[in-house]
Amino acid sequence: MAGRSFRAAMAQVMNDADVDAIAASAAAEGADIIVFPERFSNGYSRFDPEDPVARQAWIDAAVPIDGAFVKGFREAARRHGLAMVATFLEGGSPLSMPQS
Hints:
The chain is α/β, with parallel strands linked by helices and 100 residues long. The chain is 32% helix and 9% strand. It is built from 3 helices and 3 strands; from the N terminus they run E-H-E-H-H-E. It has helices spanning 19-28, 52-60, 68-80; strands spanning 8-10, 33-35, 83-85. The chain has a 3-stranded parallel sheet with strand order 1-2-3. The longest helix is centred in the last third of the chain and has 13 residues, at 68-80. The termini are far apart.
């Protein structure tokens, strides 16, 4: 790998930022990859696990892997020719635990 390099961009932005605009800017500056903050979909929102309303609101903030949030990253990456790293709270069904 000697002689090979790439340029990484770090997007230190809030989760309501325009992903496409950030990708366009990073690509214009020569980035090959852009990394977004951890848990970009909802940040590190906290809730009281004893409060069922707060817990449900946190669960409801989860996004599907085939939904608009992920699609926006995929489309921006393709449009601007760069790789993107973004983590998110993925929605899903609770696991059923086997009864013993």
